[in-house]
Amino acid sequence: xxxxxxxxxxxxxxxxxxxxxxxxxxxxxxxxxxxxxxxxxxxxxxxxxxxxxxxxxxxxxxxxxxxxxxxxxxxxxxxxxxxxxxxxxxxxxxxxxxxxxxxxxxxxxxxxxxxxxxxxxxxxxxxxxxxxxxxxxxxxxxxxxxxxxxxxxxxxxxxxxxxxxxxxxxxxxxxxxxxxxxxxxxxxxxxxxxxxxxxxxxxxxxxxxxxxxxxxxxxxxxxxxxxxxxxxxxxxxxxxxxxxxxxxxxxxxxxxxxxxxxxxxxxxxxxxxxxxxxxxxxxxxxxxxxxxxxxxxxxxxxxxxxxxxxxxxxxxxxxxxxxxxxxxxxxxxxxxxxxxxxxxxxxxxxxxxxxxxxxxxxxxxxxxxxxxxxxxxxxxxxxxxxxxxxxxxxxxxxxxxxxxxxxxxxxxxxxxxxxxxxxxxxxxxxxxxxxxxxxxxxxxxxxxxxxxxxxxxxxxxxxxxxxxxxxxxxxxxxxxxxxxxxxxxxxxxxxxxxxxxxxxxxxxxxxxxxxxxxxxxxxxxxxxxxxxxxxxxxxxxxxxxxxxxxxxx
Length: 553
Description:
- By secondary structure, this protein is of the alpha/beta class.
- Helix content is 44%, strand content 17%.
- The strands form five sheets. A nine-stranded mixed β-sheet has the order 10-9-8-11-12-13-18-22-21, with helices on both faces. It has a seven-stranded mixed β-sheet with strand order 3-4-2-1-5-6-7. It has a two-stranded parallel sheet with strand order 14-17.
- Helix 9 packs parallel to helix 11 (297-317), helix 13 (375-384) crosses helix 15 and helix 16 (494-508) packs antiparallel against helix 17 (513-523).
- The longest helix is centred in the N-terminal third of the chain and has 47 residues, at 2-48.
- The N and C termini lie far apart (131 Å).
């Protein structure tokens, strides 16, 4: 066909154009694949093999370092160290108790043995530092490694726990010294996230005492569940400013409203609740320092009892769904004003719950490591200053848990509350304060009684040798969570409790401390104050000279 003959050159040109375009695409793809594969192969061999020349596989200069653990965290840590030449760590090997990992290599670093061989390896390899790279390690395991490092005279550090490694990455900056809570803390808490989310997500939440150690951590954990609005209330301006800035930075999409207010101002608290209509209230505001409240019983009662009454009445009045009061083991058979005031607040909340649609719950636990006013910061300060470290009595024991764990269990307990509940957290085994002081000195690289002395100052006003978690008549029952128990609530008469609290708070207006203590004893019958100076103010009950005490009494 003559038409085909005429169209042949045009068709051939078109085919050639398509071919050339395809060739360009193929050429680009092949070159890109070769370039990427070469970089991948080089990186793979550099990080996982020892087949490349030594100049391509150099160990950074620094202290000879042995890593405990040959898991994902250790692998990430080795890659991070090899990526930077100025970390100060020269990793010479790993140890792991898993038999299947023996003889393997991570990033060219061999697994040399098990943790039982640690002292031998430290001597043979002239190890200067040991890094514990097992974020899920049990506390007993960490204590064993630390003891081994101490006996071998080498430095020891650790990586954060699993909750702290949120994004799964490991950075050199995350390597830190082993702290006391690594040794005394407990295993990570298993939470029912769905149960907690069901009462927090999309809700208006109010946290009092939001600038304190417990209140601020509750705020951080509540934010994770994306409430509709978070009201953070405290009377301390500067600490409230700092926690507000932190939360806004970490949760920019969450509406956070800082409120400066005193919970003792009844009308102010009622107006706030009527304006914002909080659906969930966490009440962490309290005066909690035992000796300080022995000096200031009027403030203890007006704040801990009066403030709780104002807040719980306002929550009831605005129709809040849940009200969670943070209490203390010192409220059990109290021997001090602080504990007695917290017990009186518990009684009011329990009695009010019988006449309210709001689910009122109380969560009772002991000391938390590192909280404001705890012994840990005090001991660290005394060690830094060269000692001595002051312990009140060698027989004193206390229950301890970490701040994050306590707050996690508070959120979980709130999800279990049905109203008129007193939850008791599992505090584990008690710890001698003397042992705590000695361990802190050792963690500082010093020797107790040689480098740093320990002196005994005697029990402070209102202190007990040990704390309790249950009051007589409070049977304990398990809950769905292994670390949360529930105490059987004591039967209370709302009319009687209401009248007793009213008389107690009226007494604070007179500043008559003797009458106040008598009324506090009437409200909390199990309150057994340690001092019985008739008519003497509590400030005379301090460790003053005997002649001063006689004069005051």
